[in-house]
Amino acid sequence: MTDGTDENLFVTEFPKGDFGIVDYLQGRAHFALMDQMKLMHKSGMTQEQIKEAIMKTVSEIVDNFEPKKESESS
Q1: With a threshold of 0.70, does the pTM exceed it?
Q2: Is residue 13 assigned to a domain?
Q3: How many domains are there within the chain?
Q4: What pLDDT does 72 receive?
Q5: Helices 47-63, 21-42: crossing angle, 10 deg rounding
Q6: Is residue 48 assigned to a domain?
Q7: pLDDT tens, position by position, for the chain (74 residues)?
């Protein structure tokens, strides 16, 4: 069981403010990537290893994205 220490060190909350939804979602993604890269660096990964891992993950997410088609009436 975790005491929350790691989460406090590596999870940055994106501030809620006067942002549009696109800016808010991009900000959350940016903070999440930065937090993940900090953790990866602390675990001993090189910048190139971090880049390869992040790019692989993002590519998989995009490749597997299949948006639902909305019906004509909605």
Answers
A1: no
A2: no
A3: 1
A4: 54
A5: 140
A6: yes
A7: 455 566 566 677 777 778 888 888 898 899 899 999 999 999 999 999 999 999 999 999 999 999 887 655 54
pLDDT at residue 58 in the model: 96
Residue 66 domain flag: no
Q: What gap in Å lies between CA 11 and CA 9, rounded to an integer?
A: 6
**Alpha-helical runs (H) found in the chain:** 5-10, 21-42, 47-63
Residue at 41 is within a domain: yes
Question: For residue 45, what are the contacts with CB-CB under 8 A and spacing of at least 6?
Answer: 53
* Residue entry with tokens 């993950």: 57
Q: Which domain holds residue 49?
A: 19-59
